[in-house]
């Protein structure tokens, strides 16, 4: 168990948290029956109908539903106890066009993925395991509450004809009153075991839903292949941008500068006034070319980043922003130069999006290092609706970070606010 789960030891949990774990157990028990049993049955029927061809049409849909249920358990594992369960799938159920040929190809890919069969095994075992581990704490609490608040009073009013719960073994009112401490014991027992059984179910889920060692290596190879391709494409795009900026900017001005100086040389004896004008224009052109070259260099590696580090460079971006920006930086050291540069450009592009598209009147920048990862958040109070899909600039930022095994998460509901979170593994 990771640090979060370890920090929240069952011995340190309060009453509210234990009640919450009890309710979570009820949810697990319901999902183990209404989710796992139903989906397991549908999956088995679908696999059985593959031989007649019908199963191929619905298998991607069924697998997508199974992975959705497994994904819910992965999310709850992280939210409830801080246990991260990685996604093991090689292909998504939505890969490819949904037609006859595409569906056959999809089914072949899904059935060849070991994670698909591990999900089926997980559903098979989760039906009894989830029911027992999830229902036991709630059953103890319910049984205890019955003994504390129901049995003594109903025995008094209805006598031995009331045969429910602990009253099966009760013969008089005195014994009925003993149900109160017995019920309290069951309530305490249920609350005590609820967190432990909940975490036990999470460990069970991690054992079957997390990638195996071989699957992890395969996913790692696929990820490195993809990020290498993205990095090569990003590098090629950056070289094209530099070439375009040089060709359209500084190079054109330097060519014009040479032409003016050459013409001034021919007019030096006959028209000194024109020569002075041409020299003045040449000086202006050289100054503009120098400015454009400096801007180009800043786009490759900003001098402020080299001189003042990521902390100072981010604060400089905030000062230059058109709207007020709150900055919070907690970096006890400097990241490696490539990671520092990537983080700077991601933050700069995110701030540029705030200015261009958000309509916000306030922004926030937070930068810190924790758990071996450099983290940054750029937020605004604008209109929201930002998405990485559709070839937007945010997708380019994701690809830039992927080259460093980094991640970019975007939370931007319509109406705002927007929060762009970046994480890059690194040591300071």
Structure description:
Helices cover 68% and strands 8% of the residues. With 428 residues, the chain is of the alpha+beta class. It has a 5-stranded mixed β-sheet with strand order 1-2-3-5-4, covered by helices on one side. A hairpin with a 2-residue loop joins β2 and β3. The model is unreliable at 1-11 and 161-171 (pLDDT under 50).
Structure summary:
This protein is α+β, with helices and mostly antiparallel strands and 428 residues long. The chain is built from 13 helices and 5 strands.
State the main characteristics.
single chain; 428 residues; alpha+beta; Heat Shock Protein 90; 3 domains; 5-stranded mixed sheet; 13 helices; 68% helix; disordered N terminus
